[in-house]
Amino acid sequence: xxxxxxxxxxxxxxxxxxxxxxxxxxxxxxxxxxxxxxxxxxxxxxxxxxxxxxxxxxxxxxxxxxxxxxxxxxxxxxxxxxxxxxxxxxxxxxxxxxxxxxxxxxxxxxxxxxxxxxxxxxxxxxxxxxxxxxxxxxxxxxxxxxxxxxxxxxxxxxxxxxxxxxxxxxxxxxxxxxxxxxxxxxxxxxxxxxxxxxxxxxxxxxxxxxxxxxxxxxxxxxxxxxxxxxxxxxxxxxxxxxxxxxxxxxxxxxxxxxxxxxxxxxxxxxxxxxxxxxxxxxxxxxxxxxxxxxxxxxxxxxxxxxxxxxxxxxxxxxxxxxxxxxxxxxxxxxxxxxxxxxxxxxxxxxxxxxxxxxxxxxxxxxxxxxxxxxxxxxxxxxxxx
Length: 385
Ligand SMILES: *Cc1c(COP(=O)(O)O)cnc(C)c1O
Prior knowledge:
Bound molecules: pyridoxal-5'-phosphate
Radius of gyration: 21 Å
Number of domains: 2
Number of helices: 13
CATH architecture of the largest domain: 3-Layer(aba) Sandwich
Strand order of the largest sheet: 1-7-6-5-4-2-3-11
Order of helices and strands: HHEHEHEHEHEEEHHHEEHHEEHEH
CATH superfamily of the largest domain: Type I PLP-dependent aspartate aminotransferase-like (Major domain)
Shape: globular
Distance between the termini: 34 Å
Oligomer: single chain
């Protein structure tokens, strides 16, 4: 990770840097004034309430990270040692680590080209194959990448057919929609991240949401060292220290107020890149599926070397030479040394995207002159416009 804290006078252009609104500091000040400098407090309660209202979920627990939220979510839908969990291969490693924390085995599912997210047909086939073997997975983790929802209806249908809980990793998808609803709210549990580079940030933090009040109550208990209801310290299960600080929840409340503006700004970035680079042969942007709104958390594209005149790495290095941060798309999990040997369904689509894909600077605080600098580097490398 490159440092993301910086001054506005830097001429470096970051991939996605924190962008504070007007209210965050006053909420932090309130936390100091009332001495709620703790992993609980009024900002935590209010942030949970306001976040749930914003995404349309009845219950949520604010946690120290998206990874912690996924760990608790998987445990609470019943994943344990030796179980299989189906998960998108085209994602960030944090979608998969918590499966291993619980001693379970990831089974990787490839993406579809239309949304770059989990292929619903391949998921259904893999569930069927597992059912025939008498070895159904304990959960499916679907990831909504780069600000776009996966095609949830057929994914939910496949999970319901085999009675397998669906866990939604919506860490990158806050602000996106699926048929008018919020991805993350449609499975048994959903998780969000407020890490420094996400669309809104608390510097670090996450949220676990569910329609089940009991599940979220249990998550809060496990996240605070699993204290039983007793005057002394009594424990009957293994807990974690996963609650979000009241100070950071204050930042989250301020950030939530500007979420819509942040989505608009990121979609504007995408619109600029698209209008400037649309005609360039060999460049294709991540498609926006017809079923929803893409938040364009990151603007991502693929580069066909023959048609464009240069490969993805050449473009990335040319941008780096101009002090512009761009990154390859996620390296698929089935190619990661740490998951070598894991069962994988397909993989070719994710491999294709990784070989050609690039994330462009996408922060909601970028100026048009920043975007122009990026476009200029790419434009001068193109064979034909
Ligand atoms: C960022 C991210 C996570 C992890 O969230 P943290 O808050 O950083 O722990 C999980 N999954 C995906 C897809 C992410 O992008």
